[in-house]
Amino acid sequence: MTLVAGVDSSTQSCKVVIRDAESGALVREGRAPHPEGTEVHPDHWWTALQGAIEQAGGLADVAAVSVGAQQHGMVCLDENGEVVRPALLWNDTRSAGAAADLVAELGGPKAWAEAVGSVPVASFTVTKLRWLAREEPDNARRTRSVCLPHDWLTWRLAGRPDTIATDRGDASGTGYWSPATGEYRTDLLELAMGRVPELPRVLGPAEQAGTAEHGGALLAPGTGDNMAAALGVGMRPGDVVVSIGTSGTAFACSETPSADAAGLVAGFADATGRYLPLVCTLNAARVLDAAARMLGVTPQGLSDLALRAPAGSGGLVLVPYLEGERTPNRPDATGSLHGLRLSNSSPEHLARAAVEGMLCGLADALDALGVEPARVLLIGGGARSEAVRRIAPTVFGRPVLVPTPGEYVADGAAKQAAWLLSGEPEPPHWESGGTERYEGDPTPGLRERYHEAAQE
Ligand SMILES: Nc1ncnc2c1ncn2[C@@H]1O[C@H](COP(=O)(O)OP(=O)(O)O)[C@@H](O)[C@H]1O
Ligand SMILES: O=C(CO)[C@@H](O)[C@H](O)COP(=O)(O)O
Predict the structure, then answer these.
(1) Ligand nearest to the CA of 406
(2) Alpha carbon 154 to its chain's center
(3) Ligand 1 neighbourhood includes 10 CB (under 6 angstroms)
(4) Is this entry keyworded Nucleotide-binding (predicted)?
């Protein structure tokens, strides 16, 4: 049996799956937590990766490895390859002002959408580099090269060779690489930083990034976590995937690049050579964590409570902007409760309002994609909640399919590794565990009440 490993180095944790390259059967797996915070030293990702690999029984018998990771994070390296400062993550909003400045300086949102497929908000790497140049000029001067979380981990697995590699998917989240042309826009980096640091080489979908320093496994290009999830879940044309992790994302696959001047849809590339229009919110699974904490219950307890309350939570609306928000672009917003009455002042109503509020944000994300999906697939840690699975169709106004709970980002990375080994033109097709279908009547007035509350 030839084994491949896939890594998901996402916001909250690192997961490793080891699968049979031929059938995709799961052989072993491991995981380790990441520290809290929106600014994290990459060494923590490396430590977690080592822990997860060890728990998964090591990589000694693995033929190829691929790393999927959280998108956008700014990793700055000095002339010796040392990390200049802790990475600013995708959910760090301190560069919101820099984003607004950059958008204005290039001539507005349309100019950015045409240049790189996306209008940058604080999540995008380019805005973090502008923030660095303005707020930490010494660190900006010491920065010789800039890369992303998955690029850095792949480079570390390779034993820190002279060059760093990335892929189309993750490059498309920088704000200085164009999915439409497949080229870096170094003029935009110049605009952000006043100079152009060294950048990773952008590999094709099944191109080799290197060889692991220990054990000699081949290293596949890796990609951003959403692109890896698309591959892992076996996305088909017409599918929309809604992922409820630390971020909430809704994405479709497309044969052509997109450029939304309204700035809601990020025009990413995917991990197969195609495109991945995507809408991202900052507030997803952690809204449920916060609600469970406030109510003093476990995630299971929150789900039980939410399912005991009436649809629409008796008019109670929770606007879930606990970390500010990215879509809509409201980096300084906070969460709020609306419509509180004696009749809905119960743990059950609050639990349901948290689930419904979080899902209303994702329903808007789904709508913003502007596609009529043939299937909506629900994945990510939050989809493990029974309440989320049962309430989602009543908020989205359409049935949802929930694949067997699993680590679809790590699985997609494992598929990339198997693809590299196969040398085939398309990634391997592995049998999936099937999906469970959830249906429910749309809740009257829910999204209207949410929109009214979110605008206050
Ligand atoms: N049964 C559950 N019910 C509700 N939330 C859950 C459940 N299991 C996991 N989660 C949540 O999923 C989140 C982690 O999801 P994950 O997709 O792994 O995130 P990320 O990829 O951003 O690190 C956590 O916030 C966790 O609380
Ligand atoms: O910023 C985005 C997408 O543009 C996020 O989706 C990050 O890629 C983090 O993902 P998770 O840790 O929530 O999976």
Answers:
(1) 1
(2) 18
(3) yes
(4) yes
Sign of CA dihedral 397, 398, 403, 407: negative
429 in a known ligand binding site: no
ipTM of the complex: 0.98
Residue segments in the chain with a per-residue pLDDT below the cut of 70 = none
CA of 407 from ligand 1 middle (Å) equals 11
Residues whose CB is less than 8 angstroms from the CB of residue 91 and which lie 6 or more positions away in sequence, other chains included: 11, 38, 123, 246, 247, 282, 323, 326
Q: Is 88 exposed, middle or buried (0-12, 13-18, 19+ CB in 10 A)?
A: buried
Tokens 């952008």 correspond to 202
CATH code for the part of the protein at 3-225: 3.30.420.40
Q: Which residues of 322-332 are buried (b: 16+ CB within 10 A; e: fewer)?
A: bbbbbbbbbbe
Distance 233 CA to ligand 1 centre (A): 17
pLDDT of res. 106? 98
pLDDT at site 26: 98
Instruction: Decide if 170 contacts 153 (C-beta within 8 A).
Output: no
Mean pLDDT for the chain overall: 98
Nearest ligand 1 atom to alpha carbon 243 = 17
What confidence score (pLDDT) does residue 432 get?
86
CA of 257 to the centre of ligand 2 (A): 20
What pLDDT does residue 268 have? 98
Distance CA 407, CA 45 (A): 18
Whether 174 is in the pocket of ligand 2, judged by its Cβ within 6 Å, is: no
